[in-house]
Amino acid sequence: MVTEERRLGVVRTTQRHEPPRAAVSDAQGISIAAERAADLARQMLAYSSRGTLVTEHMRLDTVVREMAVLLRTIVSKGATLELDLSPTCVDGDVTHLRQVVMNLITNASDALAGRPGKIQIRTGAEALAAPRRSACMAEPIPPGDYAVLEVTDSGQGMSEAVLARIFDPFFTTKVGGRGLGLAAVLGIVRAHRGLVDVKSHPGEGTTFTLLLPSAEAAPVCSRGTILVVDDEDAVRRVALRVLERAGYRVLVASDGREAERLFREHGREVNAIVADLTMGEVGGIELIRSVRAVDPTLPALLMSGYSSEDSTAISALGVPFLPKPFTASMLEAAVRALLGARAGSSAA
Predict the structure, then answer these.
(1) Distance (Å, rounded) from C-alpha 122 to C-alpha 86?
(2) Mean pLDDT, the chain, whole residue set
(3) Where is the PTM 4-aspartylphosphate found along the chain (predicted)?
């Protein structure tokens, strides 16, 4: 399995020996191929329930919200994502549960087949007074308190024949599909001692309902909240994983406008912002100026694959710069220095 650190290390080595633009293009190809191979292995292990679980306490609604933000740019263009997320906590493997959310949202998007429609995602809690069964699983889950994740699409629905096979490994109705996405969902939920249920009828859409054993809310313990903004999905994913593993809470946005909205909603919680330099309508420089109009001392870090770009404007802002590609340790060190500088100035 290729880790983010090693994969980005390959990118860094390539860049030293090739012209920058060619290096970035080649490195992206390597990264995509590695990600696909790793994804295939993860999903096969997930279905067999043999993947290693790293259990931690988490807010399921937070995981869903973060993945929904990450996936907005790749869902069907006619799809509208509607979130109804009530706080609910579980003890589980956050990487595996992100995979579950990603697979369900992707499946819902595919069900729309490019047509306009809705993907509704809900989290909540449910207390079972009696065992609950599902046609998808051999054993019922016992009574108790459960966290609920529900994903509904307004697509064409499924026939009984298709519904009976959707969790079979390598079964797919999609051109070019691998048939492992829903199989992995079943395996992961099974490994978490949960339940999967599906309701679907031709012409009426589909609803996937997941129940996972709930956990009591734990006190928030974090090194700080970082707002990461980048229009590249791969960069957002890597930054999210690296910073969460380092103990930070991470909010992610795919462009400057979305980052401004998140800052309006969570501004008091955000301890620093890490933004790509070039992002369409609102780039990193404009974004930092915007948020610093509200919080002039907010620490900020700019990233870019082109180190000489807009150097005058970056210098005028007085923010540090992290060149792409970067390793996990480089990103963690840059954020640590960013927060350390603010702590030092506050103490002074």
Answers:
(1) 8
(2) 81
(3) 276
